[in-house]
Amino acid sequence: MKSKRIFFAYCLLLIAFSFLSSCEKDITVVLPRPEPTVVVEGKIEQGQYPYVVVSRSQAYFDPVDSSVIANTIIFNAVVIVSDGTTSDTMKLTIDNEFFPPIIYRAENMVGEVGKTYHLTVYAEGKTLTASTTIPTPVSLDSIWFKTQPPSTELGFIWAHLSDPVGLGNNYRWFTKRFGKDVRFVAPIGSTFEDRFVDGKSFDFAYNRGAEFNSSAEDDNNEERGYFKVGDTVVVKFCAIDRAGFEFYRSLEIEVSNNGNPFAAPTSIPSNINGGLGFWGGYGAVYDTVIAQ
Amino acid sequence: MRHLQFLLFSFLLLFTVRIRAQEKEKFTVSGYVKEDATGEYSIGATVYIKELIKGTSTNQYGFYSITVPKGNYHLVVSYIGFDDIVQEIKLDKDLRVNVSIKLNSIVTDEVEIDAQKANKNVSSTQMGVNKLEMEEIKKLPAFLGEVDILKTIQLLPGVKSSGEGNSGFYVRGGGPDQNLILLDEAVVYNASHLFGFFSVFNGDAVKNLNLIKGGMPAQYGGRLSSVLDISMKEGNSKSYHAEGGIGVISSRLTLQGPFIKKDTGSFIVSGRRTYIDILTRPLIKSTSPFKGSGYYFYDLNTKINYRLSDKDRLFLSGYFGRDVFTYNNKDNGFKVEIPWGNATTSLRWNHLFNDKLFMNTSAIFSDYNFSFGATQSGFEFKLFSGIRDWNMKCDFGYFPSIRHEVKFGANYTYHTFIPSNASAKSGDVEFDLGKIVKQYAHEAAIYISDDFDLTEKIRLNGGLRYSYFIQVGPFDRYIKDLQGNTIDTITYRKGKKVKNYGGLEPRFAIRYAINKKSSFKASYTQNYQYVHLASLSAVSLPTDIWVPCSELVKPQFGTQYAVGYFRNFKEDTYESSVELYYKTMKNQVEYKEGALPEDNVNDNADNQFTFGNGRSYGAEFFLKKRKGKFNGWVGYTLSWTTRVFPEINQGKEFYAKYDRRHDASLVLAYEITKKLSLSTIFVYGTGNAITLPVARYLYEGSLVNLYGERNSFRLAPYHRMDIAATLQGKKHKKYESSWSFAVFNVYNRKNPYFIYFQNEGDIKKGNLVIKAKQVSLFPILPSVTWNFKF
After folding, report:
1. B16 touches chain A (CB under 8 A)
2. Each residue of B416-434: pLDDT tens digit?
3. Three-state DSSP state, B245
4. In CATH, what is the architecture of A38-133?
5. Hey, do A38-133 and A142-264+282-290 end up sharing a CATH topology, with the first three levels equal?
6. Min Cα separation A67/chain B (Å)
7. For chain A, what are the domain ranges?
8. What pLDDT digit, counting tens, does each position of B588-643 carry?
9. CB proximity B598 to A under 8 Å
10. CA distance A173 to chain B (A)
């Protein structure tokens, strides 16, 4: 759903830049260097092994070359996931879906709908904990591709959803194109709640998200944000909990606001005790559509 | 409470002590002062008895009243820019003396050595006041040719602008909602047009403006920090005139003349419109994303007045303004519309009960609303907000003797607020955004004050105001759980009390006259404010909404202490002052950290607020040359403004975003010849306080910012210089014209509007660089305006 909050940020950004003359110059800013914090990016999905990325924050102007990026990852953390009965220690693995491609993944436990999972991370002399539950997945009634006039080749993916009656359903949308995307990508505004659509049956659409700072050709030309006729697109529609909705919503706003003076710095509510980031349970449903 | 009782008691005591047996019979000389050429009534003209060196000044309607013992006197009327009038009077009965003053015939550096009565800034008890003449303001460099009152008052010490592209202003550390802006007694909620580039006041329609920064007298209330009282011209009651100007981006026209009968009634109609959109429309290519976009605004000021009799006058004024902003990008089907507007109407009746008792009763209607609408490919979203006020007030001026000026009155307002409401639909499906949330409230006040001479050297102004506020139904209070879901709704039916507040607001000021040229003043005031502006962003935008007090939002409460030393030099040619102030402000309103605009939808706006206190203190220095070919002023303010909010910045004290350590302005005007005059402005201010990121981390492959302490960083200082030249055209019998040339930001200083960080390069390739960039708004901007007068 073209989330209205994203509109707002988008609108304000556009107004800001269309109104201003391009009187812009580079300046030098001196900022303090705080102590690094541990960041935990973790997901557990039903039927999948849970994984966690453990990294540390850096001072704002630290150079961002490949060695530095590699150094943000914490290699010697101990990551344990438990469902209350059994626990599993996650192993350090290489996975090219991630950047940097180093993560921790459990090998002996898969997620189950309705269960609560506790995460414990020992890193940099600190102990971080978090809990999450995997909500019941909600299926989309249908999905389809529709071209966006005046184009006959480019368009968006549409879906029809019947939101279950009762407040408390929160969602997140991902897409992945066969042969073009390395992994599932969430567009800005990918997460929404049912506060205004509770119990309703409606259509919505999403544009194509892009990786942060992508240099891919189709993310930098007229195809940016669009799906193309001929694409085979897998839609991953996830049910997440309230804390997840608030976290991902704030995260996306903060990332997309970068440069917008009209937005206040957004605080991102983390569920990690002792650190930053989020440990989220996903109740996922997959659907494929071919754009034609 | 005991403190207050003591104050009340001592106040009443002072009153009773004043009563003495009359020694000599007293009579009253009273009347109106007006401008000879136009019939406009003069506000704040000095009227005094030469022999007694005692006098008063005309009120907002040009009326004065002086009661002194029987005798023969010289009545002197003086007003800056006009020749003094001296009239002999034989005061053996009550006299009505109306005076017509004429514009200065010669402008010279020579000053008459006769000013026996010290200038008002030294003699009055009023401190923290600045009165600006429209003639002064019109000579100054105008931004893009538009004379702007709000920009001019920002050149005074203690008044800070909130930055370029913003017409809001801060007075002595108070927020932009703490200024009471009155246009012919009607409250103006939003005094600027969209994006804050221009104010809503058309310079051609304004007669007088008074800015009170401290020592707010009891007849004003409802805002903590200042009063900007603007009076419109009445219109020339003797003959018909047209005047106006054609400029680079806007034009204006004013028509005025007698109404029904010469010298008895008059009207004035003033209009203004910008047309940058019409001029640029043909230049925008049809393929450009801006095709179909545009911005324009128009203003209309109208006023009619009629003198029914010697004792009665009626005034009907109105203001109507509208901004229309459209952004239309056909390529991706994205469209934005922001209509915005203010409308005010006031009907006033002046009545003279007798020579000593003057009354004004006003009935006022004020409406402010804006909406923000966005459409993209069949998805529509609209956000709207507004306020509507119905207001009645009654103000009396009582002049029992030359030593006392008593004011008393009452004020009542019925407010309707629509803080923030939205509607949204996708194709045909209407999203449920809940009922439109409206809030209704009654606000009232009564006051009394007396400005009197305690001794020869000490003049005291003691005032007491009592204000009251009550929110009434129909109203729904939504109780939310931690998830943000409504778990309970408390419904109040129509007229039922939701919450009420009230309190006493003592106002004291004292002036000690050291000698005729200098004085020392001190003041103490307490104020309540029942309406608040909640601002989400660092820049004023549609996300700012006006909200009333409620069960969650307590009234803002301000206390100000001020002391000052005032000195005039060279027979009032130079005015100078030093003022020190200290203010505390309780129950300040801010949005909770992490709040977003759409959180207001289907919820009470005040569920998103958090509360705290503020404090500000500083010193203001001011020197002004009032007369002569070469005149102007220089002002400097040194100040601190901080806030403490338990839920913001972890409860630690932080600088307010408009905390400006140094603020200086220099204004100079020089009349080279009768036809050519030059003026220049120079301003300097410490940069705004902002919150910047201090660290970052990677999440899902994106760089995310971590922010430092709130407002712990400063933008680069703001400074710029403007110059203007006005060339009078040849004066024809019925018509005159002039050209104004102005250059804004003469040395093209790139003042920071905001800074942001941009990522350049590819994170995966390992060559990502984060650069800090500063965006500036206005480069050097020349403008030309042709002005005419029939």
Report:
1. no
2. 998 777 777 776 777 666 6
3. strand
4. Sandwich (2.60)
5. yes
6. 8
7. 38-133, 142-264+282-290
8. 998 877 666 566 666 777 888 889 999 999 999 999 998 788 889 999 999 999 99
9. yes
10. 14
